[in-house]
Amino acid sequence: MLWGSIVALITPMRASGAVDWAALDALIDWQIESGTHGIVPVGTTGESATLDAEEHKQVVRRTIERTAGRVPVIAGTGANSTAEAIELSAAAADAGADACLLVTPYYNKPPPEGLYQHYKAIAEAVDVPIVLYNVPPRTACDMQPDTVARCAGLPNVIGLKEACGDAERVAAVLDAVADDSFRVVSGEDAQTLEMMELGATGTISVTANVLPKEMSEFCTAFLEGDAGRARELDARLQPIHDILFVETSPIPTKWALHMLGKVDVGIRLPLVPLSAAHVGELRARLANIGAL
Is 161 assigned a catalytic role? Predict the structure, then answer.
């Protein structure tokens, strides 16, 4: 399940901010047809922070229904309230999600024991595989390898999305976790090649929203032993990784998809449209890689 290019799917919205269900269906089909290996709906890239609980559950259900078993669906169900995370995870499990992705609680800044107890409570409450998600630049909470290893001892914790900014963390986590079946995937597109060289088995990717075929080919090349081809593709992708984080994600990604004619311009406050200063460069880089 945690293999290759897994898209951290945006939640398409109309200009009013309402979820665009038809666009969501079309994005899912395009992703699968382009070779994406898995889909994460309503992660942080899917604006989980500004969807209400019912919208969140609806997007997960719709993604599972539209995917129809063609690729795994790993539902984003993290929250900084353990009770809310349990509620969202239970709903995703009931809808048929293959796994749940749970970001570390943000703002609360729990200590290591709090992190362990948070994931333990979820694991005991919901019978679904759990993927941990560490992204301290967004949460102010950095889950260290020893805490990951402790959580990995819970029966249904199967892996980690690592986005701490230090690719070397992959090796530290894999060294700390005794279970050889535990998987680490990249949460930093620009570092994915380095992280796979250290043992990661793929990526949960923002860039895959815009270039699903290229991300799939890149990951597949590396994982099937063609390191030269993977490095070539990675070099081509780096300018896109860079521009998609020129402002807070998913602002540039949504604008790129709008340029590609895939979505309307909707995004929810406190996020705002891409600033005019970056529009031209985004368009130029998409054109340079052949997306426009």
Answer: yes
